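Homework help board

Subject: predicted structure for assignment chain

Our instructor gave us this sequence and asked us to write out the predicted structure in token form, then describe one feature. I got the tokens but I'm not sure how to describe them. Can anyone check?
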Amino acid sequence: MSAQQLQTIFSPLNFTPPADYLQFMSETNGSEGPVGALGYLAIYSAQELLDCNAQTMTVEPGVLFFATNRGGEGYAFETDKPSNSIVALELADLDRGRARPMGRNFLEFLETVTSEQAAER
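My token output:
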């Protein structure tokens, strides 16, 4: 999937994801697997991203989920903030008051996920 095709997904939201995320997606269209010794990360394909957010955006319109740990936690871009930061949210309640910052770009997000997994050991 090209970066231009990906942008057609995000343009109706008036949102531009970080360039490193677009590059990753254009090369992989998502990925899934272990992170560190104990963690797990599933980065949604373009179709999964559309399917997941079709419902959650009506409940919490300011976030766009792009990944999960498949254990009840989702990772989302904050589309209603100027910084477009990435946060972790519990999927059961989507309480943004309890959101954890995970980075301002995709690389920072991956570094945070990896360091959190290392800290849990």
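Reply (TA_rk): Your tokens look well-formed. For the description, you could write something like this. Residues 30 and 44 are 5 Å apart (CA to CA). That's the kind of observation they're looking for.
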